[in-house]
Amino acid sequence: MMASHNVSLPLFQMPDFLQSFLEILVGIGLLFAGGEVFVQGAVTLSLIFGIPQLVIGLTVVSFGTSAPELFVSVSSVLRGMDALAVSNVVGSNIFNVMVVLGSSALVMPLQVESRLVRRDVPVMIAVSAAVWGMASAGRVTWQSGAALLLALVINSIWEIRTAREEPEGVEEAEPDVNPDQGKRGIVKAVLSLLLGILLLGVGSKVLVNGASAAATILGVSKSVIGLTIVSAGTSMPELITSLVAAIKGKTDLAIGNVVGSNLLNQMLVLGASAVAASGAGGLEVGALLIERDIPVMVITALACLPIFWTKGLITRLEGGILLGLYIFYVVDQVLPRTLPTWQDEFRLVMLCLVLPAVIVLIVTQAGLYWRQLRRNRP
Q: Under 8 Å CB-to-CB from 367, ≥6 apart: which residues?
C-alpha cells in the first residue's frame, strides 16, 4: 500500500512593497472618484435650494478639490499619524505651485489677472506665514486650528462679496456650474453626496494604510511619504482641473484653482486636523518640517508674486523652472536613503548655483516688467 503524501502548494504572496504601492494607487483612485461624486451631489443640492451659482463655484466646487487632503489628514490624525497629516498639507501646497502651475504654464502661458496679485496671493502668503508661526512651537494647537477655520469663513464671505462687486474679474477664474444639475432630483443628489463621502472615507483609509506600510518598508519617515507620494496623489484633482483649464484657454481658472486650493489646505485641512487632535493637545509638527519643508512652502508662496509680475504671465520658461525645482526638492527628500554621501554636495550645488540663478532670473524679469510699466505710463 502506497503512502499518501499531502503536498501543500505554496500560495502566491504579493511582495509587501508592491502591496503597499497598490494600496496607495487604489486609495488615490477612490479619493478622486469620491471627490467628483461628492461635488456633483453637493452642487445639485445647492441648486435645488436656490444657492447662486457664483457662491457654489467659490465654495462647494473649491471644497471638492480639497476633500481628498481633508479626509486623508483627518484620518491620519485620528490614527495617531500627525506627521502624515501635516506633511500632506505642506507637500500638497508645494506640489500645487511647482507642479500644477508649472505643468499648466508649459501647456499654455498663464495670463495673470491683477485681482490675483492684489488680493488672493497676498492672502495666501499671509496664511502660509501664519501657519509657519503656529507650527514653530512644534505643535498646532486646537485653538490655532479653530482660528484657521474662522479665517476660512471670513475669507469665503469676503471672496463672495468681492466676486459680486467685481464679476468681470471673477467669472473666468471660477469653476463652471451646470444649472441643469438642479433638475436631477433631491434623492439622487443626497445619494451622490453620501456615496462621495463613503468613497472619500474608504479611499483615505486605504491610502493611509498603504503610505504607513510603504514608510516602514522603505525605512523612511511618514513625513517623507506624506511630502511626496501622498501629497502628489491627493493633489491629482487640482492638477487635472488646471491642465484641462489651460488646454481650454481658461488660464484664470488654472491659476485660481491652485491659489484657492492652497488656502483651503491650510485653513480647512490643517485647521480641521488640529481641532481633531485636540484630545492630544494639538497637532504635532516634526522639527524637520519646521526647519525645512514649511519654509519651502512659504518661499513657494512668496515666489508667486514676482513670477506673476513678469509681463502679467507665467511663461513656459517659468513653468519649466518650477517643475525643475520640484524635481530637485523630491531628490533632496530621497537622497539621504539612497546616496547619503552625495547629500551635502547636492545641497551645496542647490544653494550656490541653482537657487541664485533662479532668483536672479525672476528678479531681472520682474525689474524689466516694472520698467516697461513706467515707460507706458502717460
A: none
